[in-house]
Write a structure and sequence with these properties.
Length: 205
């Protein structure tokens, strides 16, 4: 698969051959769903917690006599049936993460890249370099028509470009090792540098 390479100013910078194994697959929603679910579950903190009846602050004295009241028999105000009592089988602090093999995670990333390429939302740029001025970069991004874009650079991100992009709404930049299925699918446009293409091919082969 051949795709044109552009510069940030909109000029042409040749073309690049994309690996069909990375960008030419038929995207499968089930694979993408599993990888995104794995990502979001691992990101969930799992710090939610409620008090059980043994943890609420109440006296353990029997609240009224067993017989003769005409009501139900109760022994403690901390029972879940009462307001302010303990919660029965409520959430506890735990991890929501689950395992997913490295091979499947790589497959998911290949399908995400292929999905963007098939939808025509993949852009290849020569390099992500800037003078470090947000206004100048914002003008270039606007002229290119990128509204919600993710830029994937090589093994390291250009510091000036990252600094200029920091305050531009809807623009994010990641190194190759930070590329992931969720962030790729969340953006309307996927922008990859030539160095990023080489690093992705080395990572996913």
């Amino acid at each position: 698969m051949k795709l044109d390479v552009i510069k940030l100013d909109g000029g042409k910078a040749g073309s690049v051959d994309l690996d069909e194994a990375l960008f030419g697959l038929e995207p499968r929603a089930d694979i993408l769903h599993r990888v995104v679910r794995w990502q979001r579950n691992n990101a969930q903190q799992g710090t939610h917690k409620v008090k059980t009846r043994s943890e609420v602050s109440y006296s353990t004295k029997k609240i009224y006599r067993q017989k003769g009241t005409g009501g139900a028999r109760h022994g403690a105000r901390s029972a879940p049936i009462f307001r302010g009592g303990g919660v029965y089988k409520g959430p506890k602090v735990r991890s929501h993460g689950h395992e997913l093999t490295k091979k499947f995670r790589k497959l998911g990333l290949r399908h995400a890249l292929s999905a963007k390429a098939k939808a025509g939302q993949l852009v290849i740029i020569d390099e992500a370099a800037s003078e470090g001025k947000t206004a100048a970069l914002a003008k270039q991004i606007s002229s290119l028509g990128w509204k919600r874009a993710l830029v994937i650079d090589g093994t390291a991100v250009n510091e000036n470009f990252a600094q200029a992009a920091r305050n531009i709404e809807g623009l994010d930049i990641l190194p190759t090792m930070g590329a992931n299925v969720y962030d790729i699918l969340k953006r309307d446009t996927l922008v990859i540098t030539k160095a990023g293409i080489e690093a992705l091919e080395a990572r996913l082969k």
